[in-house]
Write a structure and sequence with these properties.
By secondary structure, this protein is mainly alpha-helical. The chain has 14 helices and no strands. 45% of the residues are buried.
């Protein structure tokens, strides 16, 4: 967990290696280690860190399903598994069902509310997303994932066409986590839609230092299975205005 909280390419790789060692030592204790492998894989995908193979993605989804099939009540492992299946497999129904179950058991699970808020934002339900994130923040005001709360609020305001507020929340996320590529992409698009193309291009250059391979085609392929089509097209339109390479 400490390695994953570093949110660096090296930290995520080390977290996966340590979790895989734990699974090798005791295969009968999968939930925490399996959830850690799976959640770090989708973080790698989001950041563009490392070339994830089909086997890597398949393993992450297999481990996430294994966590959910264990039917334990650990909110931390469940939200990680749910978000992995949502982000890597586009399995919204399973992810939402798992989060509903854990929140019925533990309404104070802040990270489960965070995950639910992100799914709402991804599916173009901005007000539900804001409500879920505000609840998560009340439950955990000094959370190590506070940058993800802010990014989700940026998403919600972006899809509601409140581009200035989206850029502000993306800035807050980047203040706490300067390497958050998803917030950079959103900020690029929001600034471009506001007509501030110089600043948008500056943010795009910053993004390219984190993920040099970012393109319109690549982002579409990565996000099309979990982002609502209208949200994806709005982001891509802004990224294109800012000069993001097509291929």
């Amino acid at each position: 967990m400490a390695q994953s909280f570093r949110y660096t390419e090296e930290g995520l790789a080390e977290a996966i290696a340590l979790a895989q060692q734990a699974l090798a030592i005791d295969p009968s204790y999968p939930p925490a280690a399996a959830a850690m492998v799976s959640v770090c894989r989708w973080m790698q995908r989001v950041q563009g860190w490392g070339a994830l193979s089909a086997d890597d993605v398949g393993e992450a989804c297999r481990l996430a399903r294994q966590v959910l099939e264990a039917e334990r009540d650990d909110a931390e492992t469940i939200w990680q598994a749910a978000m992995t299946l949502f982000r890597l497999a586009g399995d919204t129904a399973t992810a939402v069902g798992a989060l509903d179950r854990v929140l019925a058991l533990n309404p104070n699970a802040a990270h489960a509310w965070m995950a639910r808020g992100n799914i709402h934002a991804s599916r173009n339900q901005p007000e539900l997303a804001i409500e879920a994130i505000e609840r998560a923040r009340r439950l955990s005001p000094f959370d190590p994932y506070s940058f993800f709360y802010d990014f989700t609020l940026a998403m919600a305001h972006f899809e509601a066409r409140r581009f200035e507020r989206a850029a502000e929340w993306a800035n807050r996320a980047l203040h706490d986590q300067p390497r958050l590529a998803s917030a950079m992409r959103l900020k690029v698009a929001a600034l471009a839609h506001l007509g501030d193309l110089d600043e948008a291009r500056g943010e795009l250059n910053r993004l390219l230092t984190i993920d040099p391979k970012v393109t319109i085609t690549g982002y579409r392929a990565c996000a099309a299975h979990f982002l609502a089509p209208e949200v994806l097209e709005l982001q891509l339109a802004g990224m294109r205005l800012a000069g993001t390479p097509e291929d």
